[in-house]
Design goal:
Elements: H1 4-17, H2 24-27, E1 28-36, E2 40-42, H3 44-57, E3 61-71, E4 74-83, E5 91-101, E6 104-112, H4 114-121
Length: about 140
Amino acid sequence: MESNAERAREIFEALWCNREVERVRELVAPDAAIHDPFRGLLDRTGFEALLASSGVGLPELHITVDEVLEAGDRVVVRWSGLAGAEDGTDGVTGLSLLTLRDGLLYEQWTAWDTPRFGEAFGLSSAGTQAVFSFDRPTPPA
């Protein structure tokens, strides 16, 4: 049986590293909540659109999973992303907290160096507000 850490790595690598947008409906729960620092709270359809647009807007971005830690149905993925410069100047590091339910991504919180990411990739976080509020209770397992 696959551990939550293994499943989270599989989901993260498929969706973020390999940009397999066609797998969103297979890997993400219908009632998922994806918290994105630039776009706020996304449902599964919004997340699918985000992944599709990131491949167009940032085709040179390559994301790598650096570490995965598991605590029950919650998994932390430490990742890094590079685009262009091999010296890491066009890069970003981040952490994503994934909650899995029945092998599907149920919730994801992501934090990274947002100003550096925006500067490196020509994005702006101006006008966005912090999305790190815990107003959605996690249902019991």
